[in-house]
Design a protein that fits this description.
Elements: H1 2-25, E1 70-73, H2 80-89, E2 105-108, H3 119-135, E3 139-142, H4 146-152, H5 184-192, H6 198-204, E4 210-213, E5 216-219, H7 225-230, H8 232-243, H9 250-257, H10 278-288, E6 292-295, E7 305-307, E8 312-314, E9 331-337, E10 343-349
Parallel strand pairs: 1-2, 2-3, 5-6, 6-8
Antiparallel strand pairs: 1-9, 4-5, 7-8, 9-10
């Protein structure tokens, strides 16, 4: 009995250690905060928002076209090879990264950065991809995720050590305002991601927080009817102004980017452990006029799935190689929506070699 009991104890200890390791690697980041500001006052119930300043008129957040086909890709988390792989899978690019999908619309639902090593290369690739798509008659829309927001406020806890390199190419100064505790190798990245910096303007100038294409609403996490009532265009505009460095929109950033129960953080529809809030979802869709919501944010261990009678689609499948050992059954999958509103999943098994 002695040796058997010893082996049982060792096995139990091993299982506990694996569980702790999984919890640490996949821990959810805490919501960052911004300093208080008196520049703009908002009604707490969002009853009377401040006047909306004139936008650029490009229609970035209210596209004036009806997409013939949409492909939506979930969280990529610093893995350029994975992004290329799903684009090839969906026949959006060829082996030379050229756009071959004609007038298709591609939507990526945020969290391009953190956890993986390729953040900078991935962001640069994303800009080029959009340019090539537009030249060929296609469209590409990127959304902000909570991990982009973490970087905007200098929270680098989830950055792969290899992903700090290369930011000096953007000629941004090292962090200098009381940041003596910041390691030198982190300073260029932190400075580059600060709102108002040229890097942010170049890489995130056309990112959305909420995006509606036809009868499909896209977000990173958990929007509600209150967000739609406030105005999707207004939210996107105000966050965009904050990213450009306009301090008077700090209040808007706090409301829409840093609210732990808000549209970039909440798992009200996507948690694998809790029932989805279908009531809030139905109110959201009723106010937006959308037929369905598509979100990322919460890794789905066994692939893309829908909830609430196909009213919400969960498309974060742990594409990044970071999740390879943590999600052994994960699949390489993207969501496809055709011109008639039919939804299907484009899938291929992940190579486990």
């Amino acid at each position: 009995r002695g040796p058997m009991r010893s082996r049982l104890v060792q096995l139990t200890a091993g299982v506990v250690m694996l569980a702790l390791l999984f919890a640490w690697c996949t821990r959810w980041p805490e919501q960052p905060t911004l300093p208080a500001t008196e520049a703009v006052q908002f009604d707490e119930e969002r009853g009377q928002p401040p006047p909306l300043a004139a936008t650029s008129g490009r229609g970035l957040w209210s596209p004036n076209y009806i997409p013939s086909k949409i492909v939506a890709v979930g969280d990529i988390h610093g893995d350029l090879a994975a992004f290329r792989a799903v684009l090839l899978l969906a026949r959006i690019i060829d082996a030379n990264d050229e756009w071959i999908a004609g007038n298709l619309t591609l939507v990526q639902t945020g969290d391009m950065v953190d956890r993986g090593p390729d953040d900078l290369e991935l962001l640069e690739f994303a800009v080029v991809l959009r340019e090539r798509a537009e030249a060929a008659g296609g469209h590409v829309h990127y959304l902000l995720g909570n991990h982009e927001v973490l970087n905007f406020v200098g929270k680098m806890d989830f950055v792969d050590p290899r992903a700090f390199a290369g930011f000096e190419r953007y000629a941004v100064p090292a962090v200098s305002k009381g940041e003596a505790t910041v390691a030198p190798h982190m300073q260029h990245r932190m400075a580059a991601f600060a709102p108002g910096q040229p890097f942010v303007q170049q890489m995130f100038d056309r990112h959305s927080v909420l995006l509606q294409l036809g009868d499909t609403l896209f977000a990173h996490a958990g929007p509600t009817a209150k967000d739609v009532k406030y105005g999707m265009e207004r939210i996107n505009h105000e966050v965009h102004q904050w990213l450009l460095g306009d301090k008077q929109f700090d209040a808007a950033a706090r409301r829409f980017l840093f609210d732990g129960k808000g549209l970039l953080w909440s798992r009200r529809y996507s948690s694998e452990h809790d029932k989805p809030d279908c009531k809030s979802l139905h109110l959201l869709l009723a106010h937006s006029g959308a037929r369905r919501l598509v979100v990322g944010h919460s890794p789905q261990g066994r692939g893309i799935k829908s909830r609430c009678g196909d009213k919400v689609w969960l498309i974060d499948v742990g594409l990044s190689s970071f999740f390879k050992r943590l999600m052994p059954h994960r699949k390489m999958e993207v969501l496809s929506i055709d011109e008639n509103g039919g939804v299907s999943v484009i899938r291929a098994p992940v190579d486990d070699d």
